[in-house]
Design a protein that fits this description.
single chain, alpha/beta, Aspartate Aminotransferase, domain 1, 4 domains, 3-stranded antiparallel beta sheet, 12 strands, globular, Probable glycine dehydrogenase (decarboxylating) subunit 2, glycine dehydrogenase (decarboxylating) activity, pyridoxal phosphate, GcvPB
Length: about 500
């Protein structure tokens, strides 16, 4: 493996350079921090001049793949353009400089924004209440399942099972397991949709919920959704909507109307708040009225012409996030919704579906499409037949990266071998989609003429091929200083001995 061309700032640090000067602390630390919590020696901050530091971070930033520089058809992740106007809104001093401990009377604008965003999301997905606290989709899943669990506990019903399709995103069974449910799998049929007969055989009085995404992770609309909702409700269970695929149907139809009782939304997917690289997300959860008493505390209520937090919710599952969620994301999502209006949101979804179908049609002679017919906002192809199986989905993904296009999601969903999951989103031009197709043609030609050459790519990027297994099993998540003694060495005893100091691979993202 090649090393990243940019060493860590700690590795570049020179002892001859003066330590960084920090601004005066705004609080009297001597008075407030007890002696035993105060550090005994200065932190080992890297010693570099200001221009050196600036160049360091600029070079690191240039190593990124990002939506502001590249087409990013990462299926299931809705990597759409993040409007710059959203950033302006989030940067308004009245929003950016709030402190979460301010008095309610001094944050009426922020509370109003949260209240209005809740109303907008309720209208878009067809639910009665929304919590804005969860920090991501997976966190939203967990929050909703906790509410469903609390709902059944309050009725004295024991329902230990959650049903999840075999095509589901990995976070679905993970969230269910983290809540203490046992996960029951339901099969997909030959058409890529839930096998309704199999679902009937799995539903019982032990079922707490069925978790579904619609369109599903294959980009296919679950046409039997009303029958499935009726079957779930007939055994007294709840229907949960994984809203990661909402970009296919905003303003066109609503999960609430399909019979879903709880819905999470990924503001960082559908509602243009930036994501990727582990930055802040937001996974609000909407619920129908009978789950509303269990919402996390506090809710925001409109009262007497103003707004207030309501902590007095005895059945609440409690707080699920410090303070009130990732507020900056809420501002961006609200700005987007206002700018688009309901017609604009519907147009966005229609364009997303059109773009995906255009690409699907244009790549059908290059890749194998396991499911016939139209897709929604994304589609799943298989690379299993490219060059008679001499290359893999991973090789095609790396070939795209080499040519300046972010790879599609690979090897997900699990039920399609050598899966490439492609989601162009509505924000890309036809010219960009055509460039993608031309690039894919070039890669498939190379796969046929010289598969070994494709397997050697990428050649021009800082990192070529990774040991994916080691990266997933033995991640080295922090750099340890090579100090021989003192506090730092003691603090680092927990890290693996002799761990290599090199950039770590992360598993292929599906979020
Ligand atoms: C992204 C995604 C999730 C999880 O959302 P995060 O915000 O990444 O936690 C869940 N389900 C599906 C189908 C997704 O695409």
């Amino acid at each position: 493996m090649k090393h990243a061309p940019e060493p860590l700032s700690f590795e570049k640090s020179r002892s001859g350079v003066a330590p960084p000067r920090l601004p005066e602390a705004g609080v009297p630390s001597r008075a407030t921090v007890p002696d035993h919590h105060r550090r005994r020696r200065a932190p080992e901050l890297p010693r570099l001049s200001e221009p050196e530091l600036l160049r360091h971070y600029s070079r690191l930033a240039a190593l990124n793949f990002s939506i502001s520089e590249h087409f990013y058809p990462l299926g299931s992740c809705t990597m759409k353009y993040n409007p710059v106007a959203n950033e302006e809104a989030a940067r308004l001093p009245g929003f950016a400089q709030l402190h979460p401990y301010q008095e309610e009377a001094s944050i009426q604008g922020a509370l109003e924004l949260m209240w209005r965003l809740e109303q907008a999301l309720c209208a878009i997905v067809g639910v009665d209440r929304v919590t804005l606290q969860p920090a991501a989709g997976a966190h939203g899943e967990w929050t909703a399942l906790r509410m469903i669990q609390a709902f059944f506990e309050s009725r004295g019903e024991e329902r230990p099972e959650v049903i999840v399709p075999d095509s589901a995103h990995g976070t679905n069974p993970a969230s269910a397991a983290m809540c203490g449910f046992s996960v029951v799998q339901v099969r997909s049929g030959a058409d890529g949709r839930v096998d309704v007969a199999d679902l009937h055989s799995k539903l019982s009085a032990r079922t707490a919920a069925l978790m579904l995404t619609n369109p599903n992770t294959l980009g296919l609309f679950e046409k039997e959704i009303l029958a499935m909702a009726a079957a779930v409700h007939a055994v007294g269970a709840k229907l949960y909507y994984d809203g990661a695929n909402l970009n296919a149907l905003m303003g066109i139809c609503r999960p609430g109307d399909m019979g879903f009782d709880a819905v999470h939304l990924n503001l960082h997917k559908t509602f243009t708040t930036p994501h990727g690289g582990g930055g802040p997300g937001a996974g609000p959860v909407g619920v129908k009225v009978d789950l509303a008493p269990f919402l996390p505390r506090p809710t925001v209520e409109a009262e007497g012409g103003g707004y207030r937090f309501d902590f007095d919710r005895p059945l609440s599952i409690g707080r699920v996030r410090s303070f009130y969620g990732n507020f900056g994301m809420l501002v961006r999502a609200y700005a987007y919704i206002l700018a688009m209006g309901s017609d604009g949101l519907a147009q966005a979804s229609q364009d997303a579906v059109l773009a995906a179908n255009y690409l699907r049609k244009r790549v059908e002679h290059l890749l194998h499409l396991p499911y016939a017919g139209y897709c929604m906002h994304e589609f799943v192809a298989s690379a299993g037949r490219v060059a008679d199986g001499r290359v893999r989905a991973l090789d095609i993904a790396k070939g795209l990266l080499e040519r300046g296009i972010h790879a599609p999601t690979v090897y997900f969903p699990l039920i399609v071998p050598e899966a490439l999951m492609i989601e162009p989103t509505e924000t890309e031009s036809k010219a960009t989609l055509d460039t993608f197709v031309e690039t894919l043609v070039e890669i498939v030609e190379l796969a046929n003429s010289d598969p070994a050459a494709l397997r050697g790519e990428p050649r021009s990027l800082p990192i070529s091929r990774l040991d994916e297994v080691a990266a997933a099993r033995q991640p080295v998540l922090r750099w340890s200083p090579t100090l021989d003694s003192g506090e730092n060495a003691a603090a680092d005893r927990s890290s693996p001995q002799g761990a290599p100091r090199q950039p770590q691979a992360v598993p292929a993202p599906t979020a």
